[in-house]
Every structure is written in C-alpha cells, then in structure tokens.
C-alpha cells in the first residue's frame, strides 16, 4: 500500500499524523497528489516572486491559480484525483510560461521552480516532496504552520475574489511566503518572524473579505433564522461562498424550489441582501460533520461550495453537487471561475423531482452579531460591563468536529457564569448555539458574528472595547479566548490573533500535531498558548469558580 503523511487537521490519527488513509477520507494517492500540487505551487510562486522583483507584473490569473490550488488542498475540500492532476498540469504549464518571461534572470530559483514532468512521473515525485521531506522537525513544524496559515488566507482571498475584490499585496506576500518555505537558509528565528507576518496578512485578507461581503450584501444584522422546513422541494447549500449562494437564489426565484443553508452557510441569513428572497427558507441541520445523516434526510440536492465535504454515502451521492475548489469522484461538478455566472439549472431540475426535506427540528436561532451590529449596541454593552451585569466575554470561535472530546465546549458553555457572554464565529457555534442560555439586559449570551472568516469581527470588537475602556493592552480586556480548531482556516485565524497581540489563547480539543515540542514551547512562552483541561478545571482557571 502507498504510504502518506498528513497532519494538517485536528483529527489526524493519534494526534501524530495520518499514514495510510486520511481520517478525512482521502486516500494515500490523493494525499500524494495534494502534496505535489503544493510543491509545484511553491515552484510557481518562486518564479512569480522573482518576476515581481525584476519589475514585471504577475497577472491576476496567476494569483487566482495559486489561491485556488491552496484551497483545493484544505481538509475535506477535494478528493478528485483527476481534477487535482489537471491542476498540477495547469500549474506546471503556467510556471513554464512565467519562466520564459523571466528569461535569463532565473538565477537562484529553487528546485521546485525548475522541476517539470509528465503525469507518469507524478506519483514518484509526490513521494519525495511531502511534509517529511523537511528533516529538521522544528523547521518542518514552522514551515507547515506557515503553509497551513497561507491555505486559510487563500480561502478567504478566493471568496473575496469571487466578489471582485483583489489585493496584489496579499497575493504577492502569499506567493513569496510559499517560496520561502523552500529556502533552507531560513532558520527557526526567521521562520517565526515569517509566521507572524503571515498573521498580519491574515488580518488583511479577512478585512478584504469583510469589505467584499458587506459591500455586496450589506452589514449583517440581528436576524432570526428558521430551523424547520416548508412543504416545497429544496436545495441545501453548504460551505462558505456567498457569491455561489447569491447566484443560486436568483436562479431559483419563482421556481417553487426553496433554498436552505447548512453548517457554515448559516450566517448568509444575516445579510440584508439575502433576506429579500422569500424562498430562502432557513437553516437545516448542524455542523459539517453531521452531513451523512442530514444530507440523507434532506431528500433534495445539496450544493457544496467549499469545504467541508464528508465522503458521501452511495444512498445520496447522486444528489451531491460540487463547485469551485470542491470535488469528489462521481459527484456532479458545476463549473465556473471568478467573475463567471454559474449555471445551476441541472441542480434546480433535480430538486423539482425530489420530495420536501424531512424535518429535523423546529424553532429558530438568532445571529448577525458582526462588528457593525455589535458596535451599534456598544453603549448598551459598555453600560452592562460598567454596571457589572456583564463580567466577562468568552471568545469561543473556530471549528466543530467529530471528536467526542468536543462535547467539552457544550458543557463549558452550559457551565459559564450567567454574567458571561459568548462571542463566536465559525461552525464551533453548533456546540452551543441552540442552548437556551438567555440574555443579559436584552443582550443575548451567544453573539454569533458569522463564518470562520468573521473572526475578524471579533478582533474588531475587541479592539473597539479596548479603545472605549481606554486600555493600553488588548489583554487587559475582560475577555477569555477558548477556541476550538479543526482545519487550516482556523490556523490563519490563530496567527491573525497572535499578530494582533492577543495572548493566553486556549486551543482545543488538542494542540496541533504539526507543532514540534520546541515550536510549541515558543508559542507557550511568547504568547501563553495553552490547551484545555476539564470543564471544572477551566472554570476555576478562567473564573475562579
């Protein structure tokens, strides 16, 4: 059997690394192709960086190719070997074209920049360029943390690109940083500095996406979202891409087909632009990892716009459609690149042949507490803090996942003192967003800012509170950070928070496997990064309870 090594997600085998098959479901062959795609993308990035330094322009088509390549390799995004192979071929061709443009100025290029080969060489090359090709474990740890942060940044850039927002500065940094992970002259100190710089550009990428989303769809506002179902056939949309959702809503208008959100698409309901669609029915189900039973029960077609896709069961596989960076063998793929109108007619026709969704629950949940909305409530919140009605905020952003250890976050939320407010973003919220935690002077105790990229909102809120209270240091705020992580978008959120100076972040349910003991020690000593304990231990730690 072909071997693999991957430790980029929280559920990696034994918190050490997947070596035979990914816990996510990817095969060793797929893992190898993804490793090779990253390698050739680093090579392309090296050439692009050299071109910029030579005073030449790198086109947006190159930037978008790099961005989507990284997105394809994020956990639970693309399992389709044919599509990944095609991306490797396209990337090599793009690199060769840039090399020709670079001409004689190609001195100092990395091996990745120079390598080219046919598809028959891919398996052998992939076996030599994976994670373990870096022998020093501390250098490997830092390189991988940077690459994973860049994958998260690329995801956010891709969503912004879809809405017509580009940043040459972000793209240039992303490519230069990718190329630097091949540079053997960079020691631990230099790579730690590059990690922090990655956090800076992570903040910039999240700000760019926030601007793209709010310009296109308005500022999120306090919104009640229905959890039940209607009697019409439906389409379920999962993932994060709001532009895909917008196109689908327009094309389903007047067709008798309702549209529901799943998992990380829930926050779409908070944007005013989407609230005008009467057939935008509500949210169905929970976090991404429950999709096998929830997609089964939905009865109609499901559109995966981004990760997180769990390998679908045969019983509903024919109802799963993918688009963008997502792919799975045997699932129908809706084509369309940045700036192109996608045709969802096949999806809509399919929906009309299906029964209405099976109801899983009833009622509603409230969200829409992104930074614009929370700052509109600033006086109310400040007054509640000053009066002592709110003693502390707990940032519980991040990801959900399958591990039973994640029940900690539900129990933690239940155990919180009644004068504590949860600030959340990402699918981690599904561990507690349906609990009846009440409110404080009319302020809900769970303030949901939105998707994982909306962790930016939580940073903006924290910085604003620091200003309002006249504090010197963001760490003087009455805020505790207890964050759950799963995949690479959580890594860029973490690096962004570290860049902003946030310390004493607790990360769970386990610390990342890609942290070597020495790198973990740096994070502990410089930033106070820690894991989680039991709920009782952490209540005592955070609240002296």
Element layout with pairings:
Blueprint lengths: L27 H26 L6 H13 L8 H22 L8 H4 L7 H5 L10 H26 L5 H13 L7 H30 L5 E4 L7 E5 L3 H11 L5 E4 L18 E4 L7 H8 L3 E3 L9 H4 L2 E4 L8 E3 L10 H8 L11 E4 L3 H6 L1 H9 L5 E4 L11 H9 L4 E5 L14 E2 L2 E2 L1 E3 L6 H14 L10 E6 L3 H12 L5 E4 L8 H11 L7 H9 L2
Parallel strand pairs: 2-3, 2-5, 3-4, 5-6, 6-7, 9-10, 9-14, 10-13, 14-15
Antiparallel strand pairs: 1-8, 11-12
Q: What's the CATH topology label of the largest domain? A: Substrate Binding Domain Of Dnak, Chain:A, Domain 2
- Helical content stands at 40-55%
Number of strands: 15
Radius of gyration: 23 Å
Largest sheet: 6 strands, parallel
Cα end-to-end separation:
52 Å
Estimate the strand proportion.
5-15%
Strand arrangement within the widest β-sheet reads: 4-3-2-5-6-7
Global shape:
globular
User: What's the tally of helices?
Assistant: 19
Q: Structural class, from helix and strand content?
A: alpha/beta
Mean pLDDT score: 96
What is the count of structural domains?
3
- Are there runs of 5+ residues with pLDDT below 50, and where? none
CATH architecture of the largest domain: Up-down Bundle
CATH class of the largest domain: Mainly Alpha
Mind explaining what this structure looks like?
The chain folds into 3 domains: 13-216, Substrate Binding Domain Of Dnak, Chain:A, Domain 2 (Up-down Bundle), CATH 1.20.1270; 223-352, Rossmann fold, CATH 3.40.50; 378-543, Rossmann fold (3-Layer(aba) Sandwich), CATH 3.40.50.2030. The chain is 44% helix and 10% strand. The protein is built from 19 helices and 15 strands. Helix 17 (488-499) links the parallel strand 14 (479-484) and strand 15. The longest helix is centred in the middle third of the chain and has 30 residues, at 188-217. The protein is globular and about 70 Å long. The N and C termini lie far apart (52 Å).
């Amino acid at each position: 059997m072909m071997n693999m090594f991957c430790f980029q997600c929280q559920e990696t085998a034994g918190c050490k690394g997947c070596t035979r098959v990914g816990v996510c479901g990817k095969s060793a062959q797929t893992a190898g192709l993804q490793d090779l795609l990253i390698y050739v993308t680093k090579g392309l990035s090296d050439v692009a960086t050299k071109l910029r330094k030579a005073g030449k322009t790198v086109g947006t088509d190159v930037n978008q190719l790099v961005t989507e390549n990284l997105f394809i390799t994020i956990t639970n995004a693309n399992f389709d070997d044919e599509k990944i192979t095609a991306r490797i071929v396209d990337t090599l061709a793009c690199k060769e074209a840039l090399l020709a443009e670079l001409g004689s100025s190609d001195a100092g290029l990395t091996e990745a920049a120079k390598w080219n080969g046919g598809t028959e060489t891919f398996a052998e090359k992939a076996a030599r360029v994976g994670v373990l090709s870096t022998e020093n474990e501390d250098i490997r740890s830092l390189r991988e943390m940077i690459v994973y942060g860049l994958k998260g940044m690329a995801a956010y850039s891709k969503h912004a690109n879809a809405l017509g927002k580009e940043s040459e500065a972000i793209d240039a940094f992303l490519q230069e940083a990718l190329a630097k992970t091949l540079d053997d002259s960079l020691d631990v100190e230099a790579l730690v500095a590059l990690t922090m710089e990655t956090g800076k550009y992570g903040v910039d990428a999240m700000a760019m996406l926030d601007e793209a989303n709010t310009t296109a769809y308005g500022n999120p506002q306090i919104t009640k979202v229905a959890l039940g179902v209607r009697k019409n056939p439906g389409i379920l949309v999962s993932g994060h891409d709001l532009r895909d959702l917008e196109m689908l809503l327009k094309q389903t208008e007047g067709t008798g087909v309702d549209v529901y959100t799943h998992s990380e698409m829930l926050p779409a309901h908070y944007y005013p632009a989407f609230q005008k669609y009467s057939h935008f029915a509500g949210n169905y189900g929970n976090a991404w990892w429950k999709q096998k039973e929830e997609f089964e029960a939905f009865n109609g077609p499901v559109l995966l716009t981004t990760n997180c896709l769990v390998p679908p069961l045969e019983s509903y596989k024919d109802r799963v459609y993918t688009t963008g960076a997502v792919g799975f063998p045997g699932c129908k793929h809706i084509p369309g690149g940045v700036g192109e109108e996608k045709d969802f007619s096949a999806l809509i026709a399919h929906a009309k042949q299906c029964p209405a969704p099976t109801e899983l629950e009833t009622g509603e949940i409230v969200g829409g507490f992104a930074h614009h909305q929370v700052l509109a409530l600033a006086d109310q919140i400040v007054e509640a803090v000053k009066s002592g009605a709110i003693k502390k905020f707990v940032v519980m952003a991040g990801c959900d996942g399958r591990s039973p250890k994640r029940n900690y976050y539900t129990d933690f939320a239940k155990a919180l003192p009644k004068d504590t407010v949860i600030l959340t973003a990402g699918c981690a919220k599904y561990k507690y967003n349906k609990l009846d935690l009440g409110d404080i002077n009319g302020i809900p105790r769970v303030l949901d800012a939105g998707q994982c990229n909306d962790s930016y909102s939580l940073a903006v809120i924290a910085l604003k509170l620091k200003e309002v209270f006249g504090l010197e240091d963001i760490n003087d705020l009455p805020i505790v950070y207890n964050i759950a992580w799963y995949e690479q978008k959580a890594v860029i959120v973490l690096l962004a928070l570290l860049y902003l100076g946030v310390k004493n972040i607790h990360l769970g349910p386990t610390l990342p496997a890609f942290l070597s003991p020495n790198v973990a020690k740096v994070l502990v000593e410089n930033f106070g990064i820690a894991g989680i304990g039991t709920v009782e231990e952490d209540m005592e730690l955070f609240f002296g309870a």
